[in-house]
Amino acid sequence: MAVAESEAIEPADSVSTDRRPRADAIRNRDLLITAAAEAFAARGADVPLEDIARSAGVGIGTLYRHFPTRESLVEAVYRHEIDVLCERADQLLESMPPEQALAEWMQLFVVHVATKRGMLSLLRPLLSTNPNFSDQTRGRATAAATKLLEAGVAAGTIRADVDGGDLLRAVGGICMSTDQERSVASERLVGLLFDGLRHGAAGSPSATQPGDASA
Amino acid sequence: MAVAESEAIEPADSVSTDRRPRADAIRNRDLLITAAAEAFAARGADVPLEDIARSAGVGIGTLYRHFPTRESLVEAVYRHEIDVLCERADQLLESMPPEQALAEWMQLFVVHVATKRGMLSLLRPLLSTNPNFSDQTRGRATAAATKLLEAGVAAGTIRADVDGGDLLRAVGGICMSTDQERSVASERLVGLLFDGLRHGAAGSPSATQPGDASA
DNA sequence: TGCAAAACGGAGGGACCCTCCGTATACTAC
DNA sequence: GTAGTATACGGAGGGTCCCTCCGTTTTGCA
User: Fold this and answer.
1) Which residues does chain B have within 8 Å of residue A121's beta carbon, measured at their own beta carbons?
2) pLDDT tens digits, A69-81
3) Structural domains present in chain A
């Protein structure tokens, strides 16, 4: 999985007083993020940074130049994972019916959370002490979820009384609560949730009232 | 603050196949717990264990013999803090009217949580992966809270519709949510909570219904 | 008072962190 | 193409902390 476009190097409107980074710098940064994502997922938040540098094929000095602290690396990995997830939402919507795209995306979300589990002990303090970072990432993810939901509502296959924020909280909550290694349970529960989203859609025979608490 | 009695060395009913520890071992263990509590509170969960050993006046080898892992030390400190808190509940009840004892104890609780804040990042995983340890400590604390409440109820100065578990959750929740360094806010909120406990006591002029949500 | 068992202390090897600076590489201007 | 320079790379090395191991000391019992 290539790191996506390294988030739009430089808006043209800014005077180029600070130049764009050199090509090798961009490449190495991406290699590091990819290697770090794998390492955190496989070996937890305490992986030696030297191992990450090695598996990315760069020197330890390069790692530290790009990411002065372990937290900054975790942050970059997290941001990148959110990027990928948002991007996939668009791709899925283009290639399949909205409700199927939504289902796929929710399962994708589970996988991504499982991947991030290793980083969790570092991610939590980061999110709680850094509100504008957490707002930003949450906002992006919510927007993607909303887009998927709205497409489903427009097609009449998804109920209209759930918004992106709700969906994210529900899926996230399920992933967090079933905190065991394997995510099979999460996948099943998220599937259940998805069925709930179909239930009571405009086109469905058995529409329920908004706010109805029935399972 | 001396470490209390090193939790009742050995019940007499067990055949002394395993002897009681030597006096210096007991003393050093207590010194280590005291030093660790201070160090964790002052410098967070990452204090070098060597510093703790030094400030306890023992060698690093001694620390490791008593507490093979950092977690085991954290656990011992936590257990000891709970001990002290429970003990103080009894002392307070003997030396002042029940509702005053309860008020004092709640404030004491705030101070103790503030003390433990440094250990929190190690304590959380410990509590969540080790259910019977958490049950045990929670049970002890709940018992102390219940005792204080019941004494107040018997005296007619504390309302009867709150149990020890509720109280602990409420006070604990307040301490956790106001997660800033200083605990002044916690102390004020806990004071507020205490006033709520007096409100609607048997002897109070303005009794409310159990379950009444009014402040 | 003597003697084992128990406990102590800290040297030392290993893992990891992070900085620093000599070397290599990619851009730019000509 | 080429020369020059800002930018980026790599990894040696010094520092911190971890944890084990074993010679020495202390304690409690007979």
Assistant:
1) 121, 125
2) 999 999 999 999 9
3) 23-68 (1.10.10.60), 77-198 (1.10.357.10)
